[in-house]
């Protein structure tokens, strides 16, 4: 399933040869929103990676609609390992592939226990609530999540919490993440109560580009907050 915290996985890199890379192979901070959006999506596997992450859930829902819960489990048992193998063949993060396989297994166990197809999405429905609390708590203790995730990527200083403009960017973007998680939770809860597994699957896919856009905006704003000279100096000494 898609990463619902932020689509940027620090264990992955964009394909070689992209203009936004440093000579060391690390992605350079994107200076425009479109470039940052491409970077965010690339680091989540791109369009193919997003579709692969959603394949087990989509196969489960489609088979349930066509033949019932038993066929849904059969479809999942085929789709999940195949998807895992394809992700490894594409040289995606092993950790992300293993986590995706494990999550599919846990969700299937919940659905089997309850006897309802919608229960496959019970845990993914609750995740936005936990992440929303995490994001909000990080702001309250002055350690916004987006700063922890992205500061090194944009070449920010190590003492970024003392950098007024940078701290403001990370605080605002983290609060925007709280809003996105709240909206995600609300929509998922409505679909779950209405017993709409297909809608729940679609919301899982839609969450990735939504958070990719948030990540992209954070990258651009943070880059502008620190200025190119600071970013270059930090990148040189890193």
Fold and architecture overview:
With 238 residues, this protein is mainly α. The protein is 72% helix and 0% strand. It is built from eight helices and no strands. The radius of gyration is 19 Å and the shape is elongated. The two termini are 33 Å apart. The model is unreliable at 2-29 and 229-238 (pLDDT under 50).
Summarize the structure.
This protein is an all-alpha fold and 238 residues long. The protein contains eight helices and no strands. The chain has helices spanning 33-43, 46-67, 69-89, 94-114, 122-140, 145-150, 164-193, 197-237.
Share in helix: over 70%
Largest sheet: none
Enumerate how many helices there are, as a single number. Answer: 8
Extended strand count: 0
The general outline is elongated
Low-confidence stretches: 2-29, 229-238
Work out the strand percent: under 5%
| Structure class | mainly alpha
Rg computed from alpha carbons, rounded to a whole number of angstroms: 19 Å
Order of helices and strands: HHHHHHHH
Topology, element by element:
Elements: H1 33-43, H2 46-67, H3 69-89, H4 94-114, H5 122-140, H6 145-150, H7 164-193, H8 197-237
Helix pairs in contact: 1-8, 2-3, 2-8, 3-4, 5-7, 7-8
Highlighted features:
single chain, 238 residues, mainly alpha, 8 helices, 0% strand, elongated
């Amino acid at each position: 399933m898609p990463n619902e915290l932020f689509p940027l996985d620090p264990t992955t890199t964009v394909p070689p040869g992209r203009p936004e890379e440093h000579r060391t192979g690390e992605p350079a901070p994107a200076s425009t929103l479109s470039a940052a959006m491409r970077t965010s999506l690339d680091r989540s596997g791109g369009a193919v990676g997003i579709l692969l992450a959603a394949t087990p859930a989509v196969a489960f829902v489609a088979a349930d609609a066509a033949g019932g819960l038993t066929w849904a489990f059969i479809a999942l048992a085929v789709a999940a390992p195949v998807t895992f193998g394809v992700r490894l063949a594409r040289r995606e993060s092993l950790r992300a592939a293993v986590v995706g396989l494990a999550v599919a297994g846990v969700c299937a166990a919940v659905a089997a226990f309850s006897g309802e197809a919608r229960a496959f999405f019970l845990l993914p429905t609750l995740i936005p609530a936990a992440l929303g609390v995490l994001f909000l708590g990080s702001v309250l203790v002055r350690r916004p999540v987006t700063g922890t995730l992205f500061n090194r990527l944009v070449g920010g200083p190590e003492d970024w919490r003392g950098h007024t403009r940078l701290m403001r960017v990370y605080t605002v973007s983290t609060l925007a993440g709280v809003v996105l998680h709240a909206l995600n939770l609300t929509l998922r809860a409505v679909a779950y109560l209405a017993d709409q597994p297909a809608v729940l699957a679609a919301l899982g896919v839609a969450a990735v580009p939504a958070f990719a856009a948030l990540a992209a905006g954070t990258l651009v704003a943070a880059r502008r907050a620190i200025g190119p000279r600071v970013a270059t100096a930090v990148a040189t000494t890193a």
